[in-house]
Design a protein that fits this description.
- The protein is 64% helix and 12% strand.
- The chain has eight helices and seven strands, in the order H-H-H-H-H-E-H-E-E-H-E-E-H-E-E.
- The radius of gyration is 39 Å and the shape is elongated.
């Protein structure tokens, strides 16, 4: 049995030789850090063999074994090292091929915006990277589509609002010129012109106010003053504020709250969103039709529904109903607003961490606002 002190001496010599070889390998790895993976793997394999050979030479010299035994041992070690080096080169070639294939897919994606993973088996890490790249490009394409949709909406908004502004402005100019030139002289017509000018000015002011509100929503500058408010109060105030419009249109308007539902909200902004929905419902409900506003709890959230008798909306128009300036018809009718009310309602509700939706129900539509309790 080998004495302990001799065994410790052998271990010390072998460890010293391995550390020297390892240090040389680390130095080479640092010097060649910008080279290919194949080169780095070859350095790792060579450093491993060198450390083994250095240890064997040191031990054989210390143990005073024959030259023949030393040659056999070193030959076997060298053959094993060459095999390891070959395996490292094969592995490096496979990694480089997979990396280049992935890089080619990324470059092709830059041309058409679609990322298609390589049609070859990749190492697990590269395969995971390809999956993440595919998901990232899919998100990027979704963002681009959303940006294109928003840009189209902005262009439509500018065109449509320009049209809606020109019509009342032309009327205001004509009436002002008639009054200024004395073309209209009788008191009744003058009063009617003054009332019409006031109405058109109010409509223009409301349109500008809607544009300002929408710009705040899109810019993320909508500041909410949240406090505890009751949905029953909100429904009551909205019904009271829109009752004159419903009465003038000949539409029955009713409001109902099943229970006291406190929510943390900006009462003014949320009231505006609900009022926009009710006004929209009244405008599209025929005479003798009904509009109903109901507050309750649905799926664990405070829920306000506005149901009308508009006759329903085409299914293809439902996803676009809350888009900016969307009205659902090609003709532009005066007095119909700029098509911003529903877009503003959606922005306000989402700012409250809520949800808004619409569906066809019965003889009309059912708009739903859901808010956290």
């Amino acid at each position: 049995m080998i004495p302990f002190h001799a065994f410790a001496e052998v271990v010390a010599y072998a460890a010293g030789a391995a550390l020297v070889a390892g240090g040389v390998g680390v130095g080479l790895l640092y010097a060649l850090r910008a080279r290919s993976i194949t080169t780095l793997l070859a350095v790792v394999s060579a450093a491993t063999v060198l450390a083994t050979v250095a240890g064997i030479v040191t031990i054989t010299l210390k143990m005073l074994i024959t030259d023949h035994d030393r040659s056999v041992t070193l030959t076997v070690t060298a053959i094993a090292g060459l095999v390891g080096l070959g395996v490292s080169l094969v592995l490096g070639h496979r990694l480089i091929a997979g990396t280049r294939a992935l890089l080619g897919s990324v470059r092709r994606a830059g041309d058409d915006g679609r990322f298609v993973p390589p049609d070859r088996t990749l190492p697990a890490e590269l395969d995971e990277l390809a999956a993440e790249l595919s998901a990232a490009y899919a998100r990027l394409e979704t963002a681009r589509a959303r940006e294109r949709t928003l840009e189209t909406s902005r262009r439509e908004l500018v065109a449509w609002v320009s049209h809606d502004l020109r019509t009342p402005l032309a009327g205001l100019r004509a009436m002002a010129e008639a009054l200024e030139d004395g073309v209209v002289a009788d008191a009744e017509t003058v009063r009617r012109y003054h009332a019409q000018i006031r109405a058109e000015a109010d409509r223009l002011a409301a349109m500008v106010d809607d544009l300002f509100e929408l710009s705040r929503i899109h810019a993320g500058a909508l500041r909410l003053s949240r406090r505890r408010v009751g949905l029953a109060e909100l429904v009551s105030d909205t019904v009271a504020g829109t009752e004159p419009l419903a009465r003038a249109k000949g539409v029955r308007l009713s409001g109902l709250a099943h229970e006291i539902l406190p929510v943390e909200a900006d009462a003014a902004e949320l009231g505006r969103a609900l009022r926009n929905l009710v006004v929209n419902a009244i405008r599209h409900t025929p005479e003798d039709g009904g509009v109903e506003v109901v507050a309750g709890v649905e799926r664990g959230m405070a829920c306000v529904t506005v149901s009308d008798a508009c006759g329903g909306i085409p299914e293809q128009d439902l996803p676009r109903l809350f888009d900016v300036a969307f009205r659902g018809e090609a003709a532009r009718t005066p007095g119909g607003g700029a098509g911003l009310g529903l877009a503003i309602a959606r922005g306000i509700v989402e700012a409250h961490d809520g949800e808004i939706g619409v569906s066809n129900a019965g003889t009309g539509c059912r708009f739903v606002i859901r808010l956290p309790l």
